[in-house]
Amino acid sequence: MMAEGNRASPKGFVEGTVHVDVKDYYGKRLTNTSDLQSNACVAPAQPIPAFIRQALKRVHPEVTARYYGCGLVVPECLEGCRILDLGSGSGRDCYMLSQLVGEKGHVTGIDMTEDQLKVARTYVDYHMQEFGYKKPNVSFVQGYIEALTQAGLEKSSFDIIISNCVVNLSPDKRRVLAEAYSVLKDGGELYFSDVYCSGRLTEEIKTHKVLWGECLGGALWWKDLLQLAEEVGFSPPRLVTANVITVDNKELQDVLGDFKFVSATYRLFKVPKGNTKSCQVIYNGDITGVEDSFQFDCQYTFKAGEVVGVDEEVASILTHSRFAEDFTFQPPGGPHGPCGVRHKAGIVDPFELVLHLEKQSPGSATGGCCSTQSAACCK
Asked: Which Pfam families match (predicted)?
């Protein structure tokens, strides 16, 4: 997968100068999190569920020390699932997820940086022994997130894809989404946290090596995500959380000017379109860690046993995804509730959401990626 310059090949993906720069930044310039030049990729203090905290404690210290991701990206309902982690780095999240999917599930990490993969692979046997598994349920692949099938990953083979502050490091985000769509099973989900900006960035910012490495130079205008997801075939992105990013480095701030940044977690599903009607649903409370209340996104929270009206998009997602067995479905105005469907606004501006939630709960924090100083979660 070596390349000359930035030229594309009709046979598949070719490495470009951005990938070389990013690999150098994360493979050689950074030796631990204290080497980061801005606070854009420093995780906030946040409430982490006890079962996830316990899983993280069992990850080898060197794996954790060499992990440069931000925050945590952990979707719900993982038992027995096949998960792909884009930009898995030293493997911290993969080893945490290994415990959540169980011995019958599997976690694959893909990364383009050899130094990071070496750390991850070193501790496979250690973790399997620690978890009491007879055979590994974790594997690591060297490759590019723009070329998943070229790296040997099979189409329609994963239930869930996660990514934590990595998509912004790619110069071809449409291709990343297209590849993710390709390797997801029908009903599968791309659950990812990333950095977004308030507008399309200037060439000066986009060509700034440090800003790329610090997750800012490659940030996508959040409205462009909506368009790219539709072009690829995903359901409209569902915003889960949104967190403010601040940059305290004056030199970098001068380059960034008036652009604002936010980290946001989105759900994108590979489900049929246009053939599901709005309905009422009842959450059964069986998903590990969210037994009492399941926050699907910033618009829908399902309390166990409560009737909730959902729109066509959410109805399609719930009926065609891994969540189908966790809900009881009934038509609008069914026997459990006289009221009709509560239609929600389809698109949420993550910047407006942050402002709204900060007014509601000043100083709150949550587990998105790359958030600093202040953060807010959707509840």
From this structure: Methyltransf_31 (PF13847)
Best CA proximity match to 229, nearest among 189, 256, 258: 189
Give dist(CA 355, CA 305) in Å, integer. 31
Q: pTM of this prediction?
A: 0.85
- Please state whether 140 falls in left (phi above 0), alpha (psi between -120 and 50) or beta: beta
Structure tokens at 19: 């990938």
| Residue that is written with structure tokens 């953060």 in the block | 375
Give the CA-trace dihedral at 158, 14, 19, 146, to 10 degrees.
-20
Mean pLDDT by 10 residues, the chain (379 residues): 34 59 52 51 63 96 87 92 97 98 98 96 98 98 97 98 93 97 98 95 93 91 97 96 88 94 96 88 97 96 97 95 97 57 67 86 48 29
Position of tokens 């889960």? 240
Quick one: tokens of 124? 């496979």
Per-residue CA distances from 258 to 157, 245, 262, 359 (Å) = 42, 13, 13, 22
